[in-house]
Structures are given as structure tokens and as C-alpha cells.
TrEMBL record:
Pfam families: SBP_bac_3 (PF00497). Belongs to the bacterial solute-binding protein 3 family. GO terms for biological process: amino acid transport. It comes from the Bacteria. Residues 34-263 form the Solute-binding protein family 3/N-terminal domain. This is Glutamate Aspartate periplasmic binding protein GltI (TC 3.A.1.3.4). The keyword Transport applies. SUPFAM superfamilies: Periplasmic binding protein-like II. It comes from Orrella dioscoreae. The keyword Transport applies. Keywords: Signal, Transport. Residues 1-22 form the signal peptide. InterPro entries: Bact_solute-bind_prot3 (IPR051455), SBP_3_CS (IPR018313), Solute-binding_3/MltF_N (IPR001638).
Length: 338
């Protein structure tokens, strides 16, 4: 999803603030003693506070991993819940250090907001959910339907494109806050609800009688979701990007939170570089050579994070799909730590 209407305001804000932030994020984070991450206001599996107020999810795990890279301590982070309208401004202004909220990487975002995507931690697509008793099997049967959607997002634009491309009319019901849009859909204010399919699946688990809802088969878009940082600070960009890559590479080489201490003894030169047995990789980033070891010991590899938050060990029970490792037919391909 993306807040297109923030683009113009974002450029002006970035011009006024970029000089203060360029090249300074890493030092500022180290000085204050924690990483401030922008996350969603509450999407199960991605970022959601539990009954004790502890935030959990795939995007929160990435924030924890960044903290482990910088501080050798995955607990040194804080989160700021942000809706679709707030997220880019919060990053541009320096309110947060990194946006680990489920946000689609697009050309416009990389070129007009003073921000840049640092990788993809979830490949998704946009879909539509309806109540089963509506009797609809395909989105192509939704001509004239009312559809709940969040404003200022790629979701809103993709919805209009898809219906126009299929020569169908629809009536958007535009609601800003995610929890309010879910309540509106549950209450019957709209016939359908559209957002990323992962969000639809997670939301369905929270509804009364989840089996009475169905996600239709059509994919309205490609949604590569991942972290974003401000432009102009290559060191911070590299820390975020290589934190994610280390989690992906570790899964490929079979390094987990449970066996990482044993893997330190591995004769595999790739494993040695990842875990800091061979020195140098941390120095190149400006952090401890054990940075990836610390990620894996405290957070785990990408696959562990996925299974814990979205997969078989979670309430979501989502298939890995495109988020499988490339060797298993997915798109997750960690870059070499060397």
C-alpha cells in the first residue's frame, strides 16, 4: 500500500530535513541507545501488541534483528505504531529510524519521498475478502459492490485500476484506520474488503466465525513489502539491508537459533563469515563481527521468524508460498555475506 498524496508534501519536508539526517542515523541511534521502528497499528503476524503490551510479528522481529546488529542486544528497540497516512512523514521527520511496517516498495516511493527501500521481507499481493453468504466466487462478480478500502494507499489505486480494467463499477467505502475498516466490513457496511492478502488472512482469524469469510482468488497487484530508510545515510541503509540478508542467508545454510553455537564450529567458509568466525564483515558495517550471530541467537533466521509469526506455529497457518527460499521454489534469496 502507499500514500500517494503524501508525495508532494514529503518532498518539501525531506528537502528541509535531509541535511540534518544524512549520514547521521547510525550515530544518533547509538547515542540514544535503542532503535526506533515504525510498525503498523496492529496486524496479526506482522506487528501486534499482546496482552502484556509486548509487540510481536514478522516486522517486529526485523526491528529486533536491527537492534541485535547495532547493539548486540535484540531488546534495545522501541516501536511507534503508524497508520498509512503517518508512516512516511514519521520516517522523513526523524521520528523513527526505520520503517519496518508492511510497506510496498515502489519506484515512486524510492524517487519522490526522500526514502528508499532496503529489501523485501514479504512478497504479497492484493486481494478481496467477502462473506461466504454473499455467494461470490470471483471478484469479477462484484460489479456494483461496495468495497472497504484505506485511503491514500496503493490498495486504493490498484482497486480502481482493476475494476476499470475489467469494466466493472464499484462504490468505495473509504476509512482511514485499519481496525475501523475491519469493524465496518464485519458490520456489513460494505460487501467486500480489500488489502494485501496476508492482512486479509490475518484479519480473518480475528473475526467472529472466521470460516464464514472467504478470500477470492484474484490477485490485484504485486506487493513486495519491506523496510524503508531515509536517503543519504548509506551506513544505516547497509545495516538494515544486511540485517535482513543475514537472516535469509542463515536459513539457506541451516543456521538456526537452536544450533547457532554449534554452527560456529562449521568448516564452511560462508557460515564462518556469517557468524563472525572469519573476521571483517562486522567492521565493514561498523558493528561487531558477531552481529549476525547475535541476530540468530536472539531472533532466529528468516524461516524461524516466518513460522513463528505467520506459518504453522502461528494462528495464521499461512503457507510460505513466494516467501520460500529460492532453492525451494520461492523468491527469498539472501545476498552473500562476504
Amino acid at each position: 500500500m502507499k500514500a500517494m498524496k503524501l508525495a508532494v508534501a514529503g518532498v518539501a519536508l525531506f528537502a528541509a530535513t535531509s541535511a540534518a539526517h544524512a549520514g547521521a542515523t547510525f550515530d544518533a541511534v547509538k547515542k540514544k541507545g535503542f532503535v526506533q521502528c515504525g510498525v503498523s497499528t496492529g496486524i496479526p503476524g506482522f506487528s501486534l501488541a499482546d496482552s502484556k503490551g509486548q509487540w510481536q510479528g514478522l516486522d517486529v522481529d526485523l526491528c529486533r534483528a536491527i537492534a541485535a546488529t547495532v547493539f548486540n542486544d535484540a531488546t534495545k528497540f522501541k516501536v511507534t505504531p503508524l497508520n498509512t497516512q503517518q508512516r512516511f512523514t514519521a520516517l522523513q521527520s526523524g521520528e523513527i529510524d526505520v520503517l519496518t511496517r508492511n510497506t510496498t516498495v515502489t519506484l515512486t516511493r524510492d524517487t519522490t519521498l526522500g526514502l528508499v527501500g532496503a529489501g523485501v521481507n514479504y512478497y504479497d499481493s492484493q486481494g478481496v475478502m467477502v462473506k461466504k453468504d454473499l455467494g461470490v466466487k470471483s471478484a469479477k462478480e462484484l460489479g456494483g459492490a461496495t468495497v472497504c478500502v484505506q485511503p491514500g494507499t496503493t490498495t486504493e489505486l490498484n482497486l480502481a485500476d482493476w475494476f476499470r480494467g475489467n469494466k466493472l463499477e464499484f462504490k468505495p467505502v473509504v476509512i482511514d484506520k485499519y481496525d475501523e475498516i475491519v469493524r465496518a466490513f464485519s458490520a456489513g457496511r460494505c460487501d467486500a474488503f480489500t488489502t494485501d492478502k496476508s492482512q486479509l488472512a490475518s484479519t480473518r482469524t480475528t473475526l467472529e466465525n472466521p470460516d464464514s469469510f472467504v478470500i477470492l482468488p484474484e490477485d490485484f497487484s504485486k506487493e513486495p513489502l519491506g523496510p524503508m530508510v531515509r536517503q543519504g545515510d548509506e551506513q544505516w541503509f547497509n545495516i538494515v539491508r544486511w540485517t535482513l540478508n543475514a537472516m535469509l542467508e542463515a536459513e539457506e545454510y541451516g543456521i538456526t537459533s537452536k544450533n547457532v553455537d554449534e554452527q560456529v564450529k562449521s568448516p564452511n567458509p560462508n557460515v564462518q563469515r556469517i557468524l563472525g568466525t572469519t573476521p571483517g564483515m562486522g567492521k565493514n558495517l561498523g558493528v561487531d563481527d558477531k552481529w549476525a550471530y547475535n541476530i540468530l541467537k536472539s531472533v532466529g533466521n528468516y524461516g524461524e521468524s516466518f513460522e513463528r509469526n505467520l506459518g504453522s506455529a502461528s494462528a495464521m497457518k499461512l503457507e510460505r508460498g513466494l516467501n520460500r527460499p529460492w532453492k525451494d521454489g520461492g523468491l527469498m534469496y539472501g545476498w552473500p555475506v562476504r
